[in-house]
Write a structure and sequence with these properties.
Layout (H helix, E strand, L loop, with lengths): L2 H7 L2 H12 L22 E3 L18 E8 L2 E10 L3 E3 L2 E12 L1 H4 L5 E9 L5 E10 L2 E10 L4 E4 L4 E3 L9 H6 L10 E7 L2 E17 L2 E11 L11 E7 L6 E8 L2 E11 L11
Antiparallel strand pairs: 1-4, 2-3, 2-16, 3-5, 4-5, 5-6, 6-7, 7-8, 8-9, 9-10, 11-12, 12-13, 13-14, 14-15, 15-16
Length: 287
């Protein structure tokens, strides 16, 4: 395929679908720019804190230090890279939380057609595994979107930095923390999982269909996996939608090994190319 033809095929929709696959979201079409300002990466009022030995940590398959690196590919052509990282526990609004950061970036060649620099942050309560904070900073071509939300789980409020509040149920997730919560569940083929999620200023049950098991090979190695497909009803992390399927390692780590998004002109793969396991702060892990 010539460079000119390749550039014509890699439309904004194609690249956005690639980034979408990495951050595990499906946007409901084009969304209007939001005037919300984005807080720093760690979130407002977030400071690093040493784990309290007396604190109760929910068992999870991840932990501080986990780093997942992905190659974003359109067929045989590499379009960019992305990462998912769990940081050291921070104090977020008075609660100990795992800070999770996701980044996606187009490579030098694709940036000439459509520059992408996206960053999403969530703070996951180490005890309840519910979200405490969410921010999204999208830079996709000429498109810009900034969002920041503080989740007051005790008051049942999602507090946007533009001053607007919304009612949410206890234990609600944002669209990135929901993915990490799914990793803690005992997924069984044929049995959908439901995760209460807040996105696009509305709350709904995120349905995660578990289709079966497959063995797949990616740059990071060969893995036995569970094949899952989330059905997201609200606005996701990106500007365009796609049909998303995720392969999670069928072991105690539940690593996202492959994420595939179908688009009109083919499919985008986000393949795990390297990983570093985290340090669970609980002697047990799920599932």
């Amino acid at each position: 395929m010539s460079l000119r033809r390749l550039g014509a095929v890699i439309t904004p929709e194609v690249w956005a679908a690639a980034a979408l696959a990495v951050l595990v979201a499906a946007a409901a079409g084009h969304v209007l720019a939001d005037p919300l300002a984005v807080a720093p990466a760690a979130g407002p009022e977030a400071t690093a804190t040493a784990p309290d030995p007396a604190a109760s940590f929910a068992p999870v398959p991840y932990g501080p230090g986990e780093m997942l690196d992905f190659s974003i590919d359109y067929g045989p052509v590499n379009a960019g890279e992305a990462s998912l990282e769990v940081g050291e526990v921070v104090d977020s609004g008075g609660r100990p939380c795992y800070p999770v950061e996701s980044k996606a970036a187009s490579n030098r060649f694709f940036s000439a057609f459509y520059l992408v620099r996206d960053k999403v942050v969530t703070h996951i309560d180490v005890q309840t595994l519910a979200t405490r904070y969410f921010s999204k900073r999208l830079r996709e071509g000429d498109y810009r979107k900034n969002v920041a939300i503080r989740y007051d789980q005790e008051a049942g409020k999602a507090r946007h930095l533009d001053g607007r509040d919304e009612d949410v149920p206890a234990g609600v997730q944002d669209i990135l923390s929901a993915f990490y919560f799914v990793r803690t569940l005992p997924l069984v083929p044929g049995q959908p999982a439901l995760v209460t999620t807040h996105s696009s200023r509305k709350t709904y049950d995120l349905v995660v269909n578990v289709h079966g098991r497959e063995r797949i090979t990616v740059p990071a190695g060969t893995f036995d996996c569970l094949v899952v497909q989330p059905v997201i009803q609200g606005e996701g992390l990106f500007q365009f939608e796609g049909d998303l399927t995720i392969w999670l390692s069928d072991d105690e780590h539940r690593l996202p090994v492959l994420m595939k998004t179908k688009v009109k002109v083919g499919a985008i793969d986000a393949s795990l190319k390297s990983y570093r396991l985290g340090r669970p702060l609980h002697p047990e892990v799920r599932p």
